[in-house]
Amino acid sequence: MQERDFRISRNKLKLVTTFLVVLPLIPIFIYLLNFFDTSLSDNPSDWGTFGDFFGGILNSYFSLLTLLITIYIAYEISNLEEKRNERNLSFERRKLLTELRESEFRRIGSELRKLGDLGEESGRGKILQNVYSQVQFYGFINKHLFPFLSEPVFTSLEGSIGWYSIYYNENRDLSGKGVAFLSLNCLKHILEFSEKTQQYILSEMDNTN
Fold this sequence. Notes:
The protein is mostly helical. The chain has 2 domains: 1-34 and 44-89, no CATH class; 97-207. It is built from 6 helices and no strands. The protein has helices spanning 2-22, 25-35, 44-112, 121-141, 152-171, 177-208. The longest helix is centred in the middle third of the chain and has 69 residues, at 44-112. It is rod-shaped and about 120 Å long. The two termini are 21 Å apart. The chain crosses the membrane at residues 12-33, 53-75.
């Protein structure tokens, strides 16, 4: 896109340059066409008239040239300002998105850490269910921030926590092999999800810079 714009600008510059070169030659050509066969005059007043003729043409030409250059400079300055504003807006948008991603990641991270300390037996089922609900909600509202939330790296985490919650609420036991397996499975998916999220945030930060 930038290369195409550059070619267009270069072609426009060539066209304008050609026009500015040809323009002052037109009256000279017309003058020579009409007075080519006449001999050089010895009358100073004729030369004065000749000078006035070309002086008037050149003055008008340079005035027009100055006006065109001024317009062109104003246009380029306006164009540069517009592009700079667009870059600034894009940078601010990416910066805000990065901050939102980091904030949401910290929030879900604090929820996932609760799985490492389920507390008293009477409240374990509630904690598991609450964490599972938070993970589901996180996946629902943050797909615009993290496009990979529909991929296995997140859906597997969501599923493992769901099964962990269901198993515990049915068996009320954290000492069995089944719940130990589910706990390790959750930990595995949490680590994979955390790594994926951190990599994504860092890559987006690199794009911002």
